[in-house]
Amino acid sequence: MEFPEGLKYSKEHEWVLVEGNTATIGITEFAQEELGDIVYVELPEVGEKVVKDDPFGAVESVKAVSDVYAPVGGTVLEVNDVLPDNPETINDDPYGDGWMIRVEMTDEDDLKDLMTAEEYAEYVEQQKEDEDDEEEEDEDEDEEKE
Amino acid sequence: MLRAIGIDSIEELYRHIPETLRNRAKIDLPEGLTELAVRRRLAELASSNATASDWSFFLGGGIYHHFVPSAVDAIISRSEFSTSYTPYQPEVSQGTLQALFEYQTLICQLTGMEISNAGVYDGASAAAEAVLMSRRIQPTNRRRVLMSRALHPHYRAVIATYLRNLDDVRLEEVSFDGSGATDVAELTGRLDDQSMCVIVGYPNFFGIIEDLAPIQTACAKHGAQLVTVTPEPLTLGLLKPPGQWGADIAVGEGQSLGVPMTLGGPGFGFFACQKKFVRSMPGRLVGETVDTEGHRGFVLTLATREQHIRREKATSNICTSQTLCTLASTVFMSLLGKSGIRRLAEVNVSRAHHARDRLLSETELESCFSGPFFNEFVLRARNLESLLRHCAAARIVPGVSLGQWYPELDDCLLVCVTEMNEREEIERLVGAIGG
Amino acid sequence: MRERRSNGLSEPSADKHQSEAILFESGSPGRSAFYWPVESEKGQTRIPKTFLREDIPGFPELGELEVLRHFTRLSQRNFAIETQFYPLGSCTMKYNPKVNELVARLPGFAQIHPLAPVEFLQGAIKLLYELERMLIEISGMDFISLQPSAGAQGELTGLMLIRACLTEKGNPRTKIIVPDTAHGTNPASSTLCGYDVVQVSSTARGMIDAATVATEMDEEVAAIMITNPNTLGLFEKDIEAIAAVVHAKGGLVYLDGANLNALMGVAKPGHMGVDVLHMNLHKTFSTPHGGGGPGAGPVAVKESLSEYLPVPRIVKQEDKFKLLEDCPKSIGRVRSFFGNFGVLVRAYTYITSLGGEGLEESSRMALLNANYIRKNLEKAYQIAYSEPCMHECIFTDRLQHKYGVSTLDIAKRLLDYGFHPPTIYFPLVVSGALMIEPTETETPETLDAFVDAMHSIAQEAKENPDIVKTAPHSTPVRRLDEARAARKPILRWDPTRVGVE
């Protein structure tokens, strides 16, 4: 799994690319894998305000809808117009062509709550381990039964 | 089996239920009956109802007495269709799914709209859902709903019930004029930039075919959506469909296309709209796709709009719908086909106009509205009560009295004439009403 | 130029996965199955030309045998209760008696018009009146409306009654408490009624406890919506205590009666502190599912809510039946006419056939069959909860995970064994849920065959997981690409589009 260095990451599995006062936002490789084939993306309009930690859009797979949360607050400058017709771009290239929105940040301090690539990689590991732990317990139980 | 579970009696399976509940749970109903006894009991109840076969019905008002070819029931009686569940496992539901896909297509063709869902409960709830859909699409400053008073009274009541619990929507009624159609001048005058949608019957409850051109123009000018409601879709075999008039959402009741009257239910509501609104649509949608070997197949799709996924943010709460009835209409429309549906519509128009001519020339009944009609029309009586009594004595129900919903029309009768009313039956009606 | 196809093949094929031609791809211009001579009066000359249409482009042009073959062949591509065991949890796929079908087609029920004078519909109204009394007795409630067309519409109606009652008391309130195990229609109906949803979590044992409800209950909560037995097949033991908590702060209790098949003769909702509930006639009361309806979702209430019930109300005066429209506090109508009368006739027939004792026996056998399955599968599959189950039981795919096999795979593989799968991935609180409800109308032999198939699949998961992961193999189509259907929705046949293959 990739965790590009130049990005910051949120607990809700969004990534942020900071360039001056502009933040480009998308969802991570882990997120798109959990979702499966993405069939539809709900995006805000240019000019809309996004509030930190509030949902700004949603990503739909066949069987689920996931809200996407704003890791930083600001005003929407640009929206990725490839996504309405080709939502699978997020699956294919979550950190590149699969970007979702670009915002003008209102408060740089918002970035302080975000993780580095290393921290996020650990965070994802921990999530996966928790799942594996449960499975191990079951395997032990199975062995006992047999 | 008890041994396999490891218990001595079935009672142990619910011993964990509080005793206070268990002690009072006895169902105090009579003993069960043999099948024969059941059939006799139900036949007795059935025999004390006036049916279209032993009476003469000239009744419409949202439920229509039409011919249903025997092939329709033969198909929907097949238990592969009637005892299957909602097609959540598409690999073993291709029969239902393909039939629904064909149904969606037929409704699009009939209504002239771009997409249709797989059906909702009835025409009334379809109209209510259309308003709710318009609310999802229109911005929050647009919350005025203009509803024609010439729309079916039950539909208006259901729309009001559904909207009562939503604080932001304002439901207003627009009057009808002497032609029996919605008062276009009044409607145009009341439309503004806060208007969400306009709802009119097509045809309306009085059987009048509304001229949707000025209504659509006014809606477009003010940014309001046009919702048409068609309780008698056989009309669309002959009349210009809502899509060609520029409707945004076209709904109605499908009963007249292949479903027996059955005291008004089950039928089904059809729901069609423009393609761009698809994600706001309520109800199930069937889509075409392929399987792992490239063969064409059908699935329920865009399910993320629905309650089982979206839960409180769903476009509707609808789960079980009216699928077997939509299947009946699919078979019906397939049997009638392009020429048949037109022929049947023409027969209805000619019978109804003939009957009205006869009634106006031979009886005391007078014309009420001047607008064009399909198979239903309103006539005014001098003594409606006495007329109804005379007809009942001859086992005729000559129409629906309008006074219960329109006090200003309490001497008026809504008369419906279809292909099921023979010419001699029409003559008997004329005779029973008399001069 | 439209390519014409016929039913059936023009070349021999061993491929049983041949698709059935779409209606619109068959037939021939001018063909119709409908014959009716032209009427001499051309009434349509009386309708202005601006109101007339051209012929309907693309509408079918088929002969009667073509139509019959098409739909008969389509029917053969369906699983159904009458061909396969259908253990869908919370759907109650019991046998749909044929006598119901015969009765519903009697002209005295099928050929009657709802706007005919009531004095000529006495048999029909009497049936409705008697059905009301039957359902009131079964549920232990006081009054009822048969109008709602389905369970979800019943829920909406019930919530509207609650809202009307609280509005009259001065405050409709703003919230509804909904357990995390609730069916999606519960929160969806709440929103439609103008309420916000407050979710409460089930305990580790799968139930809602009164203490949790108490933390959320306040004077802005209008009601709690609770399902009993819940969607895990477990009896909500705390229900009376929960009702007390809610009532103490002026709220009301709504019961989702979808699982009523477990309760007949066991416990009545009316005794549990429930104020309003709906029942699903197409579940507990045997009316056919029809591939997705029609059903019926009557709403029963305690006296305190009866004034708000939808109109018309059915009343008996001496020995005549009348309809009451003048009910000033009523919420109005929720649908046209009387509701799904044809469905109500079938439910009435079923209840009449079984009688009180027969219904009680049905629930007992439903519990027996579910527990039998539970006991027989608990070694091969992980059971979700060790509580005694009622009419349905839940397993997970945890034991199969390590072979890379999921609940979805197990479900698809069951199709190859000729069984309809149980409900999968619901409720959401159980990861990989497999919810099995056999119902009472299945023989022990059928249950054994199902158990054998499940054991076989568990074995396959260990030894040959691929065959499970690529299932189904023997159905009319293989696994379908749902992502494609959602990304580029094709929702109708289109003559201009080139074929998919």
Characterize the structure shown.
The complex is a heterotrimer of chains A (146), B (435) and C (501). In chain A, β6 (55-61) and β7 form a beta hairpin. Chain A has a single domain (8-145), classed as OB fold (Dihydrolipoamide Acetyltransferase, E2P) (Beta Barrel), CATH 2.40.50.100. Chain A is globular. The longest helix of chain A has 29 residues, at 117-145. Chain A contains 3 helices and 9 strands, in the order βββαβββββαβα. Chain A is 27% helix and 30% strand. Chain B is globular, with a radius of gyration of 25 Å. Chain B starts with a helix and ends with a helix. The model of chain B has no long low-confidence stretch (mean pLDDT 95). Chain C has 501 residues and is α/β, with parallel strands linked by helices. Chain C has 3 domains: 1-77, no CATH class; 99-353, 3-Layer(aba) Sandwich (Aspartate Aminotransferase, domain 2); 358-485, Aspartate Aminotransferase, domain 1 (Alpha-Beta Complex), CATH 3.90.1150. Chain C has a 7-stranded mixed β-sheet with strand order 1-7-6-5-4-2-3, sandwiched between helices. In chain C, strands 10-11-13-12 form a 4-stranded antiparallel β-sheet, with helices on one face. Classes of the chains: A alpha+beta (146), B alpha/beta (435), C alpha/beta (501). Chains in contact: A-B, A-C, B-C. Chains B and C meet through α1, α2, α3, α4 and α5 of B and α1, α2, α3, α4 and α5 of C.
Produce the secondary structure layout:
The complex is a heterotrimer of chains A (about 150), B (about 425) and C (about 500).
Chain A lengths: L7 E2 L4 E6 L2 E6 L1 H7 L2 E5 L6 E2 L4 E7 L3 E5 L4 E6 L9 H4 L8 E5 L11 H29 L1
Antiparallel strand pairs in A: 1-2, 2-3, 3-9, 4-6, 5-8, 6-7, 8-9
Chain B lengths: L1 H4 L13 H4 L12 H13 L8 E2 L12 H7 L2 H4 L11 H18 L3 E2 L6 H15 L6 E5 L4 H12 L5 E5 L9 H7 L4 E7 L10 H11 L2 E6 L11 H4 L3 E5 L15 E5 L12 E5 L5 E5 L6 H4 L12 H40 L3 E2 L8 E5 L3 H10 L2 E2 L2 E2 L10 E5 L6 H11 L2
Parallel strand pairs in B: 1-13, 3-4, 3-5, 5-6, 6-7
Antiparallel strand pairs in B: 2-8, 7-8, 9-10, 11-12, 12-15, 14-15
Chain C lengths: L63 H12 L22 H7 L2 H4 L11 H18 L3 E3 L5 H19 L5 E5 L5 H8 L3 E5 L9 H7 L4 E7 L11 H10 L3 E6 L18 E4 L19 E3 L11 E5 L2 E5 L16 H37 L4 E2 L9 E4 L1 H4 L5 H10 L6 E2 L9 E3 L7 H20 L1 H5 L12 H6 L14
Parallel strand pairs in C: 2-3, 2-4, 4-5, 5-6
Antiparallel strand pairs in C: 1-7, 6-7, 8-9, 10-11, 11-13, 12-13
Helix pairs in contact in C: 2-9, 4-9, 5-6, 7-8, 9-12
